[in-house]
Amino acid sequence: MESLNAYTPLRSIPAPEWALRSVSESSNAPVGESGLNLSPEGVRRFSLPSQPLNTAEPQTPMTAPKIVLIEDNRADIGLVREALEQHNVRCEVTVIPNGEIAFQFIEEFNAGQHPCPDLFIIDLNLPKRPGREVLKRLRASTVCKDVAVVVLTSSDNQKDKDDIAPFAPLHYLRKPSQLDAFIALGAIFKQIVDDRR
How far apart are CA 185 and CA 114, in angstroms? Predict the structure, then answer.
C-alpha cells in the first residue's frame, strides 16, 4: 500500500467557483449519453470529458472506464472531477454520498445489476457508515473483491492506515491542501484505470 502525505493541516484550499458549482450540472454531451443524472438516493453520475470531444482525435469503441467515488464533500467531488479532467481521463463516474448507499451499490454489483467498476475512490470519513466498513465490505464482495481502490482522506492517523491495510487499497492518499497537488492526483487515477484496461 502506497501512502502519500501531501497534506498540511494549517492551510486549506479556498473553494474555487468550479468546485462549488452543483455537481448536478449537465455536460455538453447529448442527453442520455453523458452528463449527470441525479437519482432519488442522491447518487450522481457524469461522464468525462465534459467538453465536446475533439473530432480530429481517433475514436475507439472501447467502453469508458468506470470510477466509483464515495465522497460526501461537494468541494472534494469537484476537485476529483477537475483532477480527472486535467489529466484527460475519459471515464464514467458514479458519486455515492454516504457509506450506507455504498453498501447498497456493492450488493447491486454482487447481484449483477451493474458491472464492477475499474476504480473505487473512497473517503474514510463518510456519513452513515465509515469508509473502512465500505472497504471491508467491498473486499468481501463476490464480484468486485479485486477492484482497484484508492483511499482519499483527510486523515493521517496511523490507526486508520493500520485498520485498512488488511483490505489492500492500492494507495492511501491524504487530501492535499494545495490545489495543484490535488489536481496532480489525476495522474494516479489515470495510471490505475489505464493499467486495468
Answer: 26
Residues in the chain: 197
Helices (H), 88-153: 99-110, 131-139
Distances (CA, A) of 137 to 1, 100, 145, 163: 18, 11, 9, 14
Does the global pTM surpass 0.90?
no
Per-residue pLDDT at 115: 86
d(CA 103, CA 105): 5
Nearest-5° angle of CA 34, CA 125, CA 44?
A: 15
CATH 3.40.50.2300 for domain 2-7+15-51+62-196, yes or no, is yes
Per DSSP, helices labelled H in 30-130 are 74-86, 99-110
Reported as a pLDDT band with limits 50, 70 and 90, residue 64 is confident
pLDDT, residue 139, reads 95
Average pLDDT, rounded, for the chain? 78
Q: Are 172 and 164 in contact (CB under 8 A)?
A: yes
